[in-house]
């Protein structure tokens, strides 16, 4: 029996998993309560949207680490290795640009929400609690993207994603 190599601890994967589980539990609970009482919980939409954002960004960080983001691989497979490394760096630079903007403006937005003490419309919780995750998880994606670039430049690659097209 082949032994599986243990995976390193990846907090973004755990965060995405917990967010998905929370969405399922919240939605199931809301359906059961709505069916039994003809009323629904007020907080479910606000928490579900928050968990969906956590799920999206956590999954994006995990995908960035394992080189599983959607991209056009035709160019990568047709170029010689030296030009391919240039493409890797250009892909990384584009990602860093977008994620850097998200970290900057996301943290500015979170700081303003904290200063203005704005509250969420559904439950009246401080908005910065929801918004602070945007720059934090964008930074996590940026770190994982950089780790992936280093691995690709060194010639290390994990198991490729199987495309069934």
TrEMBL record:
GO molecular function: transmembrane transporter activity
InterPro entries: DctQ (IPR055348), TRAP_DctQ (IPR007387)
One Pfam family it belongs to: DctQ
Keyword field: Cell inner membrane, Cell membrane, Membrane, Transmembrane, Transmembrane helix, Transport
Keyword Transport annotated: yes
Coiled coil: none
Major location category of this protein: membrane
Membrane-topology descriptor: Multi-pass membrane protein
Cellular compartments per GO CC: plasma membrane
Extent of the signal sequence: none
Transmembrane segments: 12-35, 47-65, 86-107, 127-146
Record domain Tripartite ATP-independent periplasmic transporters DctQ component: where: 23-154
Protein task: Part of the tripartite ATP-independent periplasmic (TRAP) transport system.
Family: Belongs to the TRAP transporter small permease family.
Oligomeric form and interacting partners: The complex comprises the extracytoplasmic solute receptor protein and the two transmembrane proteins.
Protein name as annotated: TRAP transporter small permease protein
UniProt source species: Marinobacter santoriniensis NKSG1
């Amino acid at each position: 029996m082949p032994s599986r190599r243990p995976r390193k601890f990846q907090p973004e994967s755990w965060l995405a998993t917990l967010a998905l589980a929370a969405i399922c539990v919240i939605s199931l609970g809301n359906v059961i309560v709505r069916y039994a009482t003809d009323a629904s919980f007020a907080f479910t939409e606000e928490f579900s949207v928050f968990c969906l954002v956590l799920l999206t960004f956590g999954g994006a960080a995990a995908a960035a680490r394992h080189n599983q983001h959607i991209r056009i691989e035709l160019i990568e497979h047709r170029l010689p290795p030296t030009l391919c490394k240039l493409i890797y760096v250009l892909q990384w630079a584009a990602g860093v640009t977008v994620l850097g903007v998200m970290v900057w403006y996301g943290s500015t937005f979170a700081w303003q929400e904290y200063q203005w003490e704005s509250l969420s419309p559904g439950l009246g919780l401080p908005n910065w609690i929801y918004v602070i995750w945007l720059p934090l998880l964008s930074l996590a994606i940026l770190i994982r993207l950089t780790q992936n670039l280093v691995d690709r430049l060194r010639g290390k690659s994990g198991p490729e994603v199987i495309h069934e097209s």
